[in-house]
Design a protein that fits this description.
heterodimer, A: alpha+beta, MetI-like fold, 2 domains, two-stranded antiparallel ribbon, 12 helices, 5 strands, elongated, B: alpha+beta, D-Maltodextrin-Binding Protein, domain 2, Dipeptide-binding Protein, domain 3, four-stranded mixed β-sheet, 17 helices, 22% strand, globular
Amino acid sequence: MRVRRVLTRWLVTLGVLHGIVGFAGFFAPYDPVEQDRKSPYLPPMRFHLIDGQGHFHARPFVYALKLREGSFDRYVENTTEPQPVRFFMKGARYRLLGFLPCRRHLFGLENTRIYLLGTDAYGRDQLSRLLFGGQVSLLAGLLGAGITLSIGLCIGAVAGSFGGWRDSLLMRLAELFMALPWLYVLFAIRAFLPLAVSPLRAFFLIITVIGIVGWARPARLVRGVVLSAKERDFVRAARGFGATHGYLFRRHILPETSSVLLTQAAILIPQYVLAEMTLSFLGLGVPEPVPSWGNLLSSLQQYSVLVSYWWIYLPALAMVPFFLGYLGLASSLQERGAAYKIESRIWGI
Amino acid sequence: MKRVTANLKCCWICPTVLLSLFVFVGPPAIAFPQEKITKEELLVLPGEVGRPGGRLVVSLRGEPKTLNPLIAADARSREVIGVMQADLVHINRARQQTEPALAKSWKISPDGLSYTIVLRQGLKFSDGQPLDADDVLFTFRVYLDENVHAPQRDLLIVSGKPITVRKADAHTVVFQLAKTYGVGERLFDGLAILPRHLLEKPYQEGKLGQSGSLATAADQWAGLGPFRLKEYVAGQRLVLERNPYYWKSDAQGNRLPYVDELVFLFVPNADAQVLKFQSGETDMISQLGAENFSVLSRQQRGYTMTDAGPGLEYNFLFFNLNDAGEKTSPEMQRKQKWFREVKFRQAVSAAVDREAIVRLVYQGRGAALWGLVAPGNRRWGNEKLPHPAWSFERARALLKEAGFSWSNGPNGESTLLDSDGKPVEFSILTSSSNADRAKMAALMQDDLKQLGMRVQVVPLESRSLLDRVTQSRDYDACIMGIASYDADPNSDISVWLSSGGLHLWNPSQAHPATPWEAEIDRLIEEQMSARTFEQRKKLYDRAQEILAENQPMIFLASPNILAGAKNSIGNFRPAVLEPYVLWNVEQLYLKNGTENATR
């Protein structure tokens, strides 16, 4: 019971986090590629409740930031005019979940622009970029893991149920794939592709490449489960009653692999998000101006950005809760798997 | 090499320090009892008198490839060679005018075809061997020898014929040209006079290319520059020591250079240069990006940053206008139909927010650019060149005139269509190692999106970028930057001429592809042989106008020259010409010499 509660807690946390990123258009105040050329490297604005005269405002407000005279990246707060934050404002057009045309945003300002996480070199809103970038990175992780697990399941099941030379061949191949230095393989594959690829094509390319490279480990795990399941008593019994190969596989063997697959998914997704980030950080991922967590961080390769603008680091912090969530989920899934096995031993389910 | 390394420590403390004490502490007459100073015709430099001694440390982005001026092609080698060698006539980097160097004086014949150059008397190479007219003769023979493949050879060919050199007496040399040459004595700048006594043998054996490697023993290499080779540690540093026979002195008669040693540290990139300077390991820094400049300016501790004003670097976008004939893919043919349309190029130019580039890329330390001559060039820019303002309306009108149209998407975004109804999409290449140009590309991408063009930016490693542009010629558009090495139009000749290798949109043409390219060729060639500045300027102005009308290069912006030095460095005056801070290296001195010398 305790295991199930923990599991639910992790699932809810992850659901909320993914929901925020999934509805990025609503939570982000602006279009992520829109440049505000008057505000490059603007630091994050702060919410206020009490203004300069000591008056309390029920509605939180921010102060607009203006470039300091003669400077190009230093700002001063304009404390004479508090800008109250408006909720459910109409703003830039976007498509909710990719298809619903919409204009409402959670918050915004009436007269000027609000930058809660500051802006980048072109004056683009970091918060909007972070949320929309999350869509790219997380989707890459989810789809990549999906591809890996389907390939892994197929190969593992074939190797486990047929055995013999097919098994040895597939497993040697898996060992070969595990020994590959995948980052360099990705570099090499990316280098062979045409120079200019549209953001969408680049995105699917990365997913496919990441997804295909990692199948070996899940395939080996699935093979192990299939091998042991084949010899279980109830499978033998079913076979004795005349069950066909296909029926046995569908009804008895495949369900056995589900806990392994789920745990693997929870481990692989953050790994693949990180892989996408690495590629984008190095300029091999989704091209500008489309945001992803990797290319949000890539400007940190410059020393001047590294020492001058601390808010550019924030996207690195944003992924921490996601990673924690997935790792927590993986460990509780593992626990559940272990508990399930013990229970099934005891009760003979 | 190991031998040299082992010698380093003791060697530079004892002999050089002793030597410098001898040379500088006492009055010159005592320091050189047996040398006849009167016979040596030193060049006396005006300006602040410094104090001798100490060492100066600067950083280089990577290692120089060679010390040999005959094979040096990379900027780092040239920077090092610049302080080890000297030329007959030199362009003063601050005034951008010529001044006497090894040549005491020169005379140009009335017909402008022969230059008589008189050498200074009593000069010596850095190994103590005397310099005379035979060294000059040998130098130019080597430069002009086709088998040597010296990069200087092209400069010495005037209207198809090599310059001839004749010795009049031991200190007088006559250069004969086939045609009048507008560049005049500027021609001699940067042409290092080589030591015949060291190079004649390798030259006869055909081994000149092998001499002057960095591993050369210090006593096997010599020059006429302010510094001579002392020690090279692979991957770490190159140490040069003061040339005791250098031919310049300050206003008080002290022989230059002031510092005993000049050290070049090899670092991997610009950020590493900034870190070394910030930590005090190097004394000066130049070729700084605006963002690094503002990082260093924010916390000035013991150093001062200087903005020397607009330089000679020009950044531009160009489209692929090569004619590959039948090999061109259908897609490329379609794209080139747009690129060849002058109104399309003018529209792109009108849509570029140059002011935003200056603000966001250069943090205001730069200038918007509408022509090839950068604002740092005070004499040659065409003031009448139009500076059309940033305007999407004008861009749209131009595109409409050229037969383009727009289709509206569901989200209110519009797509530009060509006369065949196909969307306008292309990619822009930039060098992945240059953050400034990548930023320009991102800004342009956004500007062109307003016109409905779908542009992708492709960062590429700079070597393969150049390869694509000049060799395989497989690209749509590209952003590049070129820094002229001199204010004279001569330095950009290979950009202007349709036969030039840097005529990037369609390099090394056999015949000019368009009438306006032919016209530019004619103007530039005529300008080269014009006699007076006014004549040349008029022709050059016209060439600039034609370039601006046709927009084969869409000029973007020109960065300021930014540099910095420790406060203890005297006479630090960065120039807008290369080498930005080392041009007056012989006059640089340490105000409190002991501190640096002991480190």
